[in-house]
Amino acid sequence: MGIVSPGFFGRRGSGDTKLPPGQYLTHDFPVLSAGPTPRIDLDSWQFVVTTEIGQRKQWSWQELTSLPSEDITKDIHCVTKWSKLGTHWKGVPVETLLADVETAADYVMAHSYGGYTTNLPLEDLLNGQAWIAYQYDGAPLPPEHGGPARLLVPHLYFWKSAKWVRGLELMLADEPGFWETAGYHDYGDPWREQRYQGD
Amino acid sequence: MATLTERRRETDSAATLVFDVPDWPGHLPGQHVDIKLTAEDGYSTERSYSIASPAEGDRIELTIQRVHDGEVSPYLLEGLGVGDPIEIRGPIGGWFVWRDTDPDPVVLVAGGSGVVPLMAMVRARKAAGSRIPFRLIYSVRTPEDMLYANELRARVRDDMGLDIAYAYTREAPPDWPGEVGRLKLATVATHGWPPDLMPACFVCGPTGFVEAVADILVAQGHDPRKVKTERFGPTGT
């Protein structure tokens, strides 16, 4: 237990709500990004998977949204301390996109329109843990929340769920992405409170 | 572990808290800290606050705006006593920062209490004796909501190369010659820098404000990579 703050009681949520340590519950959907929101034309939108030997596989908007999709209901946890429960998404499982890709990679760098990057272990993107999401709450994903499509990896802090995603780069060795270079954790498990490098 | 050494009133709903943090490693203007409060039964919660002061030994200043119905800000503004200990972690963030070695001119656009990390940059510029030209555009609801009003007036006089333009969204001072309302492209274009100068742009405020201003800067022709944003204030605003 930390230093007790004299006279602080705090506001407990309903006791049955389980949040990761240090998080508080919000019913809004806050926006967090490092720069302007890019506006992306669906006609020129592409999603590209690149392997460690430079092989590419790509999808147009039409092709991606024609793939079998899933409805997803998950809690999300932002490193800036808010959590939002039971959010509804629709998207294509990442494993569908990687199904025919031959790779020995253990890590992935997600790349976004606008230049954002974030790194993840490949195994965290497989087995029903990650999607390319293009709908939120039954409507097209708004640009400020990452539309037209974002990576959705709800079991990690939400900066790993790259907004405006345009591709996945498979890598043999881990490399830090945008926030990871700026001092945030390479893995980012909210339940172990891995906010910053060294946590 | 830090100790509150002083609390200074800024407005009816905001105050600056001065903390002594032994072995503070120093920080860059724009960085923030995490504050963790723990109740007697072990319940704890955390929030992030931008640092308002430039690096200065073991002392840091945070300016805290009261969040209506908030869990943490009312405690920091009224409950925490001078001399009380508190858990502070930081500095955090390596993106929304200004370095006095950066050669580019700077435009700062603040909405409400989003001025806090930008004020750290203005103060750090003076402390470093920097000659980098700074322009601050500061949008507030009413004159009474303005943080650092007296200091900004003095700095515009004394800090060579600092220009400040104000905007009022609800209510302006009686003799105000301009419009009252949300920041417009014309205001940003007039009081910021032209894109040809490749300025570093820092925008901080509530989400709607930041989205609107970042869009204006991009529309004006600024390179999106030169526009750094930070959302501020309670979630959902």
From TrEMBL, chain A:
Residue intervals of the Oxidoreductase molybdopterin-binding domain: 35-179
Protein's organism: Asanoa iriomotensis
Superkingdom per UniProt: Bacteria
The name this protein goes by in its record: Molybdopterin-binding protein
InterPro entries (alphabetical): OxRdtase_Mopterin-bd_dom (IPR000572), OxRdtase_Mopterin-bd_sf (IPR036374)
Automatic annotation (TrEMBL), chain B:
Domain FAD-binding FR-type: 1-98
CDD domains xref list: FNR_iron_sulfur_binding_3
Pfam (any one): FAD_binding_6
Keywords on record: 2Fe-2S, Iron, Iron-sulfur, Metal-binding
Cofactor: FAD
Coiled coil: none
InterPro entries, per the entry: Cbr1-like_FAD-bd_dom, FAD-bd_FR_type, Flavoprot_Pyr_Nucl_cyt_Rdtase, FNR_nucleotide-bd, MRET, OxRdtase_FAD/NAD-bd, Riboflavin_synthase-like_b-brl
Top-level taxon in the UniProt lineage: Bacteria
Name recorded for this polypeptide: Oxidoreductase
Taxonomic source organism: Asanoa iriomotensis
